[in-house]
Amino acid sequence: MTTFPPVDDQMRILMRGVDFGDTQTRENMEKELRARLEKAVATGTPLRVYCGFDPSAPDLHLGHTIPMRKLRQFQDLGHEVVFLIGSFTGIIGDPSDRDSVRKQQTVADALEKGKSYAQQAFRVLDEDKTLIRYNHAWLSELTFTDVIDLASNFTVQQFLTRDNFSKRFKREDPIWLHEFFYALMQGYDAVALETDVQIGGTDQLFNLMAGRKLMEAKGLSPQTILTFPILVGTDGELRMSKSTGNYIGIDEPPGVIFTKVLNVPDAFFCHAQLRGTGHALGPERDRRHVRGHGRGHAGHARLQAEVGVGDREHLPRR
């Protein structure tokens, strides 16, 4: 039976940096999370929390560390964490932030690019407390009947309310049918993993809500979702991305990281600080909570210094 810190203390830590874009959604998710934490404390049963990462490129970057640090906070508080590699969703790629269709890849391509993800993730996550999963394990087993069943929970109109699809529709640019499948696949991940909490970017809100809807349709308790704003890139304008070249890879050589950090504009630092997911109680008080419940980690401070985004002092270094 696991012993957890008080619920109020967990809430202050876990809600730090969360942004849903509207007050009502935040209130609903905060209420749900508190109820789940209260049940976890009462029963001694940890929550199962996950975040998915599609291997569109071999490297994770600083933007990925925002949800990864939130996963680490759940770990330090005694909960179970699943680091999901999108070996099947990566075939299509998430269209959430795209004004045009992504280039498709094969499962083999995604697996090859995702090989290094686990080891890179352990720069932030506790390896001994992290479950690595690949979603081709269940998505590749779905039949066409299964896909029809999943699709019957959504309407075309719901998809067209998404900003990127709406813009493309108005411009009469192509919206390919397979792009609609992405939300179904990501939503089904939550069903397959039977998770309590999913973490993602604000651009992922539709996909995360799809997971809640599918879980409910399958007779499961809908997962609580926590979303975080997307980290701006080193240009201080566009979102951090490999495709735009405005990223800081967490596994890049020290000299490369140092040079990129030296050249980023002030706008990056301001935005990065707002996106920080560090502990809300203050680092020393939080460390006492973690140590007091036997979940300290000797390398935690060093890892946060390497990939943290809370302030200038916590920019990546080795």
Largest sheet: 5 strands, parallel
What is the gyration radius calculated from CA atoms? 19 Å
User: SSE order, as H and E?
Assistant: HHEHEHHHEHHHHHEHEHHHH
Number of helices: 16
Please sum up the structure shown.
By secondary structure, this protein is α/β, with parallel strands linked by helices. The protein is 47% helix and 8% strand.
What does this 3D model show about the protein?
By secondary structure, this protein is an alpha/beta fold. The protein has one domain (7-233): HUPs (Rossmann fold, 3-Layer(aba) Sandwich), CATH 3.40.50.620. Helix content is 47%, strand content 8%. The chain contains 16 helices and five strands. It has helices spanning 7-14, 23-43, 65-76, 89-92, 107-114, 117-121, 136-139, 144-151, 156-160, 163-170, 177-193, 205-217, 254-263, 266-274, 283-292, 300-307, and strands at 48-53, 80-85, 130-134, 197-201, 224-228. Strands 3-2-1-4-5 form a five-stranded parallel beta sheet, sandwiched between helices. Helix 12 (205-217) links the parallel strand 4 and strand 5. Helix 11 (177-193) packs across helix 12. The longest helix is centred in the first third of the chain and has 21 residues, at 23-43. It is globular, with a radius of gyration of 19 Å. The protein starts with 6 loop residues before the first helix and ends in an 11-residue tail after the last helix. Residues 279-318 have low confidence and may be disordered.
